[in-house]
Design brief:
The chain has one domain: sialyltransferase cstii, chain A, CATH 3.90.1480. Helices cover 38% and strands 15% of the residues. α7 runs parallel beside α8. The longest helix has 19 residues. The radius of gyration is 16 Å and the shape is globular. The chain starts with a helix and ends with a helix.
C-alpha cells in the first residue's frame, strides 16, 4: 500500500460518510470470488518502464478518441465509464479499472480480452458476482489489503488508473478524457440527482492526483484539463512525449 494512503482513506470515509466496515465486507466477498493468478506479473510486463495512457470519461473524451486510435501499441488503462465509447470505436483497453457500474454488456464483451482491476466497496456488494465473467481479474480495496485483495491507492476509477500505473512503475503516464472540474462528461452516466456527489468525487480524485505527483517517479502529462503536478500537452505533442 502506498505510503500515506491510510490518512487519505480516513479523510474519504469522513468526507463522504462511507462505512469502512462495509468496504471491508465487500473486499472479503470479492476475495472469495476471484482466483489466485499471476496477473500482477502480466501488468508489470505491460506497464513497467513504459509509456501508458490513462483514459477517463470526461467531456474531452470525444475529441481524444480519434487521437487514441493512432496509438495502437501504447498500453491503455481505462476507467469503466469510458470503455463503451472506446470499444464502439474499435479501441480495446489493455486494463479496465472498474467498480462495476459501467456498461455491463460492453464489459462482458471484452471480458476475456482485457485485464480487469475490480474495486470492492460498500456500495457494490450485490454486483461482485459479475467478476466471474472476467478471465483476468485483480481485486482491490481502499482499506487494508489482504490475501488476493490489493490496494494501489486512488478513489475514482480514473485516478485509480493513474495510481495503478504508478504502482507498476510506468515511465510516463499520459491522461486523456480526465477533466476534473465543474463539467461532467456525457459518458459518465451521471443522473441529475447525483451531480453534486459526482463533482465532489472528481474534486477528491484530482486532489489525490496532485498528491501523487509529489511522490511518484513517473513522468506525468495530461491532454485534458490542467492538473497541478502534471505537464499539460496538446494532442499534437503526444508523439513527441512517447518517443
Amino acid at each position: 500500500m502506498i505510503s500515506g494512503w491510510k490518512k487519505r482513506y480516513s479523510d474519504i470515509i469522513k468526507e463522504f460518510n462511507y462505512s469502512e466496515k462495509k468496504d471491508k465486507e465487500s473486499a472479503v466477498i470479492l476475495n472469495s470470488i476471484i482466483k489466485k493468478s499471476n496477473i500482477n506479473e502480466k501488468i508489470i510486463s505491460l506497464v513497467k518502464n513504459k509509456t501508458v495512457f490513462v483514459i477517463g470519461s470526461g467531456s474531452s473524451l470525444s475529441t481524444a478518441i480519434p487521437i487514441l486510435k493512432n496509438f495502437k501499441k501504447i498500453i491503455k488503462i481505462a476507467a469503466d465509464s469510458s470503455v463503451k465509447p472506446l470499444v464502439e470505436n474499435g479501441i480495446i483497453p489493455d486494463i479496465v479499472i472498474t467498480d462495476l457500474d459501467g456498461d455491463e454488456d460492453t464489459l462482458k464483451k471484452i471480458g476475456r480480452k482485457s485485464i480487469f482491476i475490480v474495486h470492492a466497496h460498500g456500495d457494490n456488494i450485490e454486483k461482485l458476482e459479475f467478476v466471474k465473467k472476467f478471465k483476468k481479474c485483480i481485486g482491490t480495496t481502499q482499506s487494508n489489503p489482504f490475501n488476493k485483495i490489493q490496494n494501489f491507492g486512488g478513489f475514482t476509477d480514473g485516478d485509480r488508473g493513474v495510481f495503478l500505473a504508478n504502482h507498476f512503475g510506468a515511465k510516463k503516464i499520459i491522461l486523456f478524457g480526465m477533466d476534473f472540474g465543474e463539467k461532467i462528461g456525457k459518458y459518465s452516466n451521471t443522473k441529475k440527482s447525483e451531480r453534486k456527489i459526482k463533482l465532489m468525487k472528481l474534486q477528491k480524485g484530482e486532489s489525490l492526483l496532485e498528491w501523487l505527483s509529489t511522490i511518484t517517479k513517473s513522468e506525468l502529462f495530461t491532454t485534458s484539463k490542467p492538473i497541478k503536478g502534471f505537464k499539460k500537452i496538446s494532442y499534437k505533442n503526444v508523439d513527441i512525449i512517447i518517443t
